[in-house]
Specification:
Elements (H helix, E strand, L loop, with lengths): L6 H7 L38 H16 L4 H10 L12 H29 L1
The structure holds iron/sulfur cluster (SF4).
Amino acid sequence: MLQPPHSSLQVAAIPHQRVPVRDRNQDAPWHTEAVCRRDEAGLFFAPSKEPTAARLSREEAAKRVCARCPVMVECREHALVQPEPYGVWGGLTAAERRVVLARRRRRDMELNKAARGTIAAAG
Ligand code: SF4
């Protein structure tokens, strides 16, 4: 089933609802099980001067590949932590990853602020 473009962000907030059940070798590096290892269709990175409609279509096709990838969670986290500035990684476009990272930064700031408030109240 196709995912609407906005669903990836919702999934990013609740990744376990989309994580496929898998049986993989936990000792192997995650990228050895990537289903996109041979991106022969060129789905994951934009060619130069790609029109918007073509980009959206290509990204959706890439996300469909990601949706059946056994290492989607590891891939997504890698791309967020690096951060990877280009391409579809772990079912998220670069723009979607920027949104996730901004949310994480906001959450971390709020947690730090709450922790400082707790320390100040105790002291
Ligand atoms: S989640 Fe997508 S980009 Fe990441 S390894 Fe799998 S197919 Fe490739």
